[in-house]
Amino acid sequence: MASDSIFVLPGDPIDPSAVPSHPTKALRLGPGLRHVPPRQILPTLAGQLLVDKHKNAMRVETSRGRYIPRAGELVIGTIYKSVADAYQVLISPYTAPVSLNHLSFEQATRKTRPVLLPGALVYARVSVAHKHMDAEVECVSATTGKSDGLGPLTGGMLFDISLGMARRLMVPKPAQHAKLVVLDEFAASGLQFDTATGRNGKFWVGSDSTATVIAVGRAVQDTDGKSLSIDAQRKLVRLLIKNTG
């Protein structure tokens, strides 16, 4: 979803030039926006106005607050318990668990499916998200049967980040489009680590080195909480690498 980084407040008038148009698709308003007849669109939340011209859609992205599941988004969840033929998975505080079918893993059968205990982490895709139904997630592509990088996350550490930082981490070329260079800087230094980002404000780091895990997670959290510039991010990474050496 493309955006020109327009920050809006509730009730702010939106410039008509920012509203997408499409010859065949109706305009879709997502969370944080409402239509005031005849043609006015007003924000109901404070955040970044995101516009997708291809889908003829727009919504307001908030950096904080409760995550609302949307179909197709990647999330990191914590296994709460197993009931009947599914796991109940927590993806955000103070909200109902989502459902993860026991067989929703690559090549899973009743005998080979992963057995996940409470507290285990999974990287999953939201497959069902309706207002009046419990959401569902999956760890396998419904079309290819492949995991596509989804599934249990073993070892490592989980870090809380804002919803805005999660979105920044997941955009293509974050250095260019989200002014985010911390992960590139760590990788360029030769540190070995893996990461997974959930749109629900979760960031997982895995590595054979505990010091590396903590350094990468802390750098992302500090960049998020302190709104660090690119130069400040590079300075922070150099300091953390020096301290882990």
From TrEMBL:
It holds the Pfam family Rrp40_N. It comes from Ophiocordyceps australis. It comes from the Eukaryota. Residues 156-209 form the K Homology domain. This is Ribosomal RNA-processing protein 40. PANTHER family: EXOSOME COMPLEX COMPONENT RRP40, PNAS-3 RELATED. GO terms for molecular function: RNA binding. The keyword Cytoplasm applies. Residues 27-66 form the Exosome complex exonuclease Rrp40 N-terminal domain. One of its GO terms (biological process) is CUT catabolic process.
